[in-house]
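Ticket #4471: structure export looks truncated?
Reporter: QA, pipeline team
Priority: medium

Steps to reproduce: submit the single chain below to the structure queue and open the exported record.
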Amino acid sequence: MTTAKSKKEKALVIVESPAKSKTIKKILGDGYQIEASFGHVRNLPENVLGFDVNNDFKPTYVIIPEKKKVVTKLNELAKKSDKIYLASDPDREGEAIAWHVRELLEVPDDKVFRIEFNEITPKAVKYAVEHSRQIDMDKVKAQQTRQILDKLVGYKLSPVLWKQLGNYRLSAGRVQSVALRMICEREDEIKAFVPQEYWSIHTIMDKDGKLFEAEVNKYKNKKIEIKNEEDANKIKEFLLNPQTEFIVEKVTKKESKRKPTAPFITSTLQRAASSKLGFGVSKTMQVAQKLYEGIEIDGTPVGLITYMRTDSVRISDDAHEMAKNFIIENYGEKYYPPTTNIYVKGKQNVQDAHEAIRPSYPDRTPESIKQYLTTEQYKLYKLIWDKFMSSQMAPAEIANKTIDIKAGEYNLKAGTSKILFDGFLKLYNDAEEDEKEADAKIPDLEKGDSVKCKEIIPKQHFTQPPPRYNEASLVKALEEHGIGRPSTYATIITVIQTRKYVEKKDKALYPTLLGRTVCKQLVNQFADIMDYKFTAGMEEKLDKIAEKKAVWNIVLKEFYAPFMEVVNSVMKNPQKVVIESDKKCPNCGRVMLVKTSRFGTQFLGCSGYPECKTIISLNNSVELDDIGSETDISGEKCEKCGGDMVMKTGPYGKYLECKECKNRRKYIRSTGVKCPKCGEGTIIEKKSKYGKIFFGCNKYPDCSFALWDEPTGNTCPECGELLVKKNTKNGLFETCSNKTCSFRRQLEEENRENVNE
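Actual output as written to the record:
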């Protein structure tokens, strides 16, 4: 087969995403038409299981309603084409999409071919067309089994939660529920953690006027444990005794080599993008997808990285050669190792169909194409480029020096490291902090040298609980347990947050009361489904199906019978569960319960209902402890009796109440700025239907004047429009509300507090 086409021959290439179309079209030329399926075109029906348990789990697929026009168009184009190439992504999900598209195309089999490429480069795409194949039905069956398992678990477990928790919007999932368990168990560890006090003793040592730091690390040649201040002071007292001698017992000098680590796979890219760039998992994958599909460079779309959903660290021979040439030419031969760096991932369940994540064109440095990339694209591309290129470079050479100092029965230790040759560190360092180059701070010492102690610094510490998961560390935990696959990590994390089982605060993942209750119910009743090893074992079975080592419907049968036995047992006697919060009712003092309205909104309701009907929105920022608090304000008078109004806090926010007649009205913060449009109203703080704060005239609807930013009351010296406050990372500014005016000036520091209140 050849990529060259006669004028009469037409070929249709069907991809998943339209973003790839321009890039592939540029490579293949006018003989090819590129169209997208926009992901999956068929799925199991929504309101039924969609497969026949009594007929070997035979599935029934339906066209996704919004894809009917897509399918019609693909069929029209396919009938006019001589050849059809199915070019969905090079993974199990992509193989299934190719099969579903093929099933819907009304053309002969000999016209349809499956192609896949790990990178969108001329060489890779043309090679794929020249080496097309048939659809791999084992991969399709593996994906189909995964889909049926997920549907079965969700379809059967969710009603259990509905009955027990009285919330018909809850859901359970084969993998999402296990991820939720990880987060809940970590929270349990944190709450059960009891901090233990311990101390460390640091010293400032002196050798001929040269100062250096050392730490007490041993007592009677055993690791020292200093449990309290009393013990620390005893050691301090001994070390400060003029009779105590500090003698260098040993000087150890050692040179070591630090090797680079493997190029990125999906999980390691997500973790590095989180720690080094501050990207969430979903953002990382979205930006990587765009880099893979193609960026316009000098009018030509170019795919810049290889496929970003992979758990393989393998690198092609071509990539090795390109990296070698680039490193030698740009950094010198000493930066390339004597033998090529080859990486192998130890886990057995690696899908090694394609490569690690790397730049498609290593010679396209991040700086050379920076002008064509957004800030986020540049940062992620640079991270991938640096990591890949460093993985092919020579090891770094490190000089380590350790000094052991004897003081009676105590031992003190000082150590430094110095980079002799940076090697791969020239481009990328896996460590959070760079290597210390503090060798100059320790004087040249020999065994038997005497040093003086200038200062003793005892430091108190407390053991810390394990950190809460963030998105990146949760991905790492899932991967280590063998749960999920590169293509599912981002979806798993998104789902548990969307379901309100988990919330993100300062990048950390916290289980909600609802999430903890759901998790507890599932763990107690469905131990296997929630078991880490069981879930990982199911992933291995899916891999075996793809490798022809297991039969898909037998795997499903083995799962179905014991699973349904437990489900049926639980459903026979579903116990109602209440979710108790740690809050007390502000009116009667009873425990507040987490409840769900018929519209799916969660709120806190008093457990004393119907005697006490107190409810509080969970989405409201008001703390229960603040309810009933009172604040005097100036200038607000009661419209009924003229008495002074005070601001009070209620379950749904702040309101004004008259001290005399107890008349109430909603509290609306006024800016005190006259409306420039009508001249009569005052600009007040408002909230859009989506919850966003804006500022508008209080004469609405008679006056529609509105601003997104708070007005300062000043007018622009250049155009006369109102000035507004802008709080930026560079400080607080007063800018013109007229978008065509560029006036801006920095506000004084005392004004900053008013804006941030």
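Status: closed, not a bug. The export was complete when the record was re-opened. Leaving a note from the reviewer for reference: The chain has a mean pLDDT of 86.
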